[in-house]
């Protein structure tokens, strides 16, 4: 049953790919609002379905109820999360420009830019690691949007070593689920200088969609089950302290 939830989640991503390929820049006008308003429902339902399965039973009804009951908090948290990413991107871009200009002025521009880029990438990863459990906090712990981030940061701070290990494994699973389909997708399209996507092999494109739906669904279901189970273990560890 969890595979059904995973399929819903993966379908949204593949729909975005097809819209981008066949509608070009117009797709962004559809994909951005679609993702913003639909992802909270899908993610809330998916986490609820997994949590139900871990507790003993789950169903498509669990998915629907989880999506509906947690929608407002999930939407608010999604907006906050996107805002954090945008803010970090702006700060990172400004820092990179300043560091690059200073580096080129003293003759070590490329090295400076590379070092600063690595530092910024690590910074992004650290921030993401600390807030990554906000969705589980909303569904499993019944937190509101802002409180979910506080709980996530608190749990990570108290279990830093284990969370780092979890994050590495979860990232590896995510890459495993998306990698094969992405490789096929990149071999089926070309990108123009204007940013448009041109299909060079329709059959390979649809093969990439099929592979992602199959592999992505299985791996996503497994990865998020691991995600929710790990989150609940962090909660239990806090109660036992």
Automatic annotation (TrEMBL):
Keyword terms, alphabetized: Membrane, Transmembrane, Transmembrane helix
Record-annotated membrane-spanning stretches: 26-50, 71-104, 110-134, 155-176, 205-231
DUF7847 domain segment(s): 2-234
InterPro entries to which the protein is assigned, alphabetical: DUF7847 (IPR057169)
Signal peptide (residue range): none
Any Pfam family hit: DUF7847
Protein name as it appears in the record: DUF7847 domain-containing protein
Source species: Natrarchaeobaculum sulfurireducens
High-level lineage: Archaea, Methanobacteriati, Methanobacteriota, Stenosarchaea group, Halobacteria
């Amino acid at each position: 049953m969890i595979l059904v939830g995973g399929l819903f989640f993966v379908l949204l991503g593949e729909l975005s790919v097809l819209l981008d390929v066949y509608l070009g820049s117009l797709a962004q006008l559809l994909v951005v609002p679609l993702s913003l308003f639909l992802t909270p429902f899908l993610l809330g339902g998916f986490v609820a379905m997994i949590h139900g399965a871990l507790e003993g039973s789950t169903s498509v009804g669990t998915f629907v109820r989880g999506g509906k009951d947690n929608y407002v908090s999930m939407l608010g948290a999604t907006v906050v999360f996107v805002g954090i990413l945008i803010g970090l991107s702006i700060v990172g871009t400004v820092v990179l420009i300043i560091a690059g200009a200073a580096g080129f002025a003293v003759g070590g521009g490329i090295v400076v830019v590379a070092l600063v880029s690595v530092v910024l990438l690590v910074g992004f990863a650290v921030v993401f690691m600390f807030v990554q459990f906000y969705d589980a906090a909303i569904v499993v712990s019944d937190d509101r949007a802002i409180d979910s981030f506080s709980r996530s940061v608190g749990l990570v701070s108290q279990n830093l070593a284990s969370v780092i290990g979890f994050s590495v494994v979860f990232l590896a699973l995510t890459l495993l689920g998306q990698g094969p389909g992405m490789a096929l997708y990149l071999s089926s399209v070309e990108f123009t200088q204007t940013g448009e996507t041109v299909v060079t092999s329709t059959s390979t494109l649809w093969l990439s969609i099929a592979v992602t739906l199959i592999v992505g669904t299985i791996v996503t279901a497994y990865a998020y089950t691991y995600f929710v189970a790990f989150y609940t273990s962090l909660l239990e560890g806090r109660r036992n302290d």
